[in-house]
Amino acid sequence: MSMSIRNAAICQLVAATMLAACSKPEPPPRDQPPEPQAQHTELRDAIQQPIDQAKAVEKSVQDAADRQQAEIDVETGG
Predict the structure, then answer these.
(1) Measured between alpha carbons, how far is 70 from 64 in angstroms, rounded to an integer?
(2) Where in the chain are the domains?
(3) For a tag on the chain, would you pick the N or C end, based on fewer CB atoms within 10 A?
(4) 20-77: per-residue pLDDT in tens?
(5) Has this prediction a pTM greater than 0.85?
(6) What confidence score (pLDDT) does residue 49 get?
(7) 28 close to 34: Cβ distance less than 8 angstroms
């Protein structure tokens, strides 16, 4: 009888250990931001490059429009 009680206790211990191993991992603390995971910036650079080019073109177009408006104002006396 003592052998079956001992076997039952071992089975309970094994079951408890297995259940503990299946629990969810602890979430990171709220006051500490998560570590950045992306080390490579090729994708970000590939996305940002056309945006930067568009901003540069926008500035040159706006400068040309301002010069043209200034010429019109000089010609019309406005």
Answers:
(1) 10
(2) 42-78
(3) N
(4) 666 677 777 778 777 777 667 888 899 999 999 999 999 899 999 999 999 999 999 8
(5) no
(6) 94
(7) yes
Distance CA 55, CA 48 (A): 11
Please tell me the distance from the alpha carbon of residue 5 to that of residue 22, in angstroms, as a whole number.
26
- pLDDT at position 72: 94
Q: Please give the DSSP secondary-structure letter assigned to residue 77.
A: T
Q: Which two tokens stand for residue 73?
A: 């104002």
Distance CA 78, CA 73 (A): 5
Q: Is the dihedral of CA 56, 59, 60, 61 positive or negative?
A: positive
How long is the chain? 78
